[in-house]
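Progress against Task 2.4 (sequence-to-structure conversion) is shown through the following example record, which the project officer requested during the mid-term review.
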Amino acid sequence: MTYPLLRASAFVSLHPDLPLSERVPKYILALPKVIVERGPRSLFQYYTTYASMVPTIALDLAIFYGLKSIFYPRKYFLESDIPLFSNVFLAGSSAILRYLSYQPLSEAYSQVKSLNSQMKLKDFAAGMQNHLKSRIQMNGIGGLYEGMIRNLPGLVVFRGLQLGITETVIERTKYKRGKTSWISKFIISYVATIFARFIAYPFDIVRMRTGEEGEASKNIKKYFDTLTSLFTREGTRVFKRAFTSAFQASGSSLALSFFFHLNDFQNIRGY
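Structure tokens generated for the chain above:
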């Protein structure tokens, strides 16, 4: 549902330093122009290839509920009884497990797409397979996780807070009211997403900066030295652009709200 918006953003030139209050109106006003000049089909171009990669949030949810079923079986605990910290911890753990299992495929996908984004699905699969083989031959299994030190902290903080807070608040609300509307679920997930993105923003900055330093992406000490120096030099100003980044996460919020609503519907029908 949000893919046309992602495609449109690629056609609209917006400076990253532009405030959100100016970015949104310019983007909205440019949308009709993009559709007229390029046609509505351009907003869905390459969607098949894009959709063929399993959305990361689907894997995170699957692993998250798998972990919850192990540590908090429903026959002994109500969902509303599980503490916020536990939900955040399990959600962060699911992000780590998903990264270890899915990241090599995601990296291969990005590399092949950068060479030719118009490949057919079959050619994409072959290209990804060749990329994975070459990485293993050159650097062993560790070659599949190059850059993990700089990528993982921000991912764990973001998904742990986003999914953990959303799950906890929705379950508490449902327990008190008996049910929760889809609009309520979307608002809860969107606010949680904005908060999570805001808190994870410094880690995103460090990820980009250490990515430019080569070996720093493999060194834990250098990573935390970069993070410490960031706050030492900039203090709270590090969050200056955080809200612009945070408000761009509507896609995952929409997915979460649909998931929780469908999950409630299935529980009501007794599946």
